[in-house]
Design a protein that fits this description.
This protein is mostly helical. The chain is built from four helices and no strands. Helix 1 crosses helix 2 and helix 2 packs across helix 3.
Length: 133
């Protein structure tokens, strides 16, 4: 025996609309997450650019070496580049840097000046005890 099922005339349209609404909702959630991520990245980038500009003025150098100096500090302090940049900006405004960041900054500046003079190796380590500022 052959059985035939009759579907309402607009069944396909309703099923397609339901599927499209679900897919659109998932796309909207994914797009909102991506937009939030891009906003955070842009905010971090602005802080990094400002800190690079400060380094370029204070330790007369180009943008590449200034960014490398910030990257070196972030590696030595095990901190993100935007966090290091924000700390540098805060220091400019009067807030003291942490001891770890001060030490990393000294080392990074010595390395920058050694490269500027044409030195092949990194500067010698600080003597134990009291270091120079």
């Amino acid at each position: 025996m052959h059985r035939t099922t009759l579907l309402p005339e607009n069944w396909w349209d309703e099923a397609a609309e339901d599927w499209a609404e679900k897919a659109a909702g998932q796309d909207a959630v994914a797009l909102r997450a991506e937009i939030d991520q891009l906003r955070r990245a842009l905010a971090g980038r602005m802080v990094i650019d400002q800190a690079c500009g400060m380094v370029m003025i204070l330790a007369p150098c180009r943008r590449g070496p200034a960014r490398n100096l910030l990257v070196n500090i972030s590696r030595q302090c095990n901190a993100s580049l935007p966090d290091v940049s924000a700390a540098m900006i805060a220091a400019w405004e009067g807030e003291p840097l942490s001891r770890l960041m001060q030490r990393a900054l000294r080392h990074a500046l010595r390395r920058l000046y050694a490269e500027d003079r044409g030195g092949d190796s990194a500067p010698a380590a600080e003597p134990s005890g009291r270091g120079r500022p």
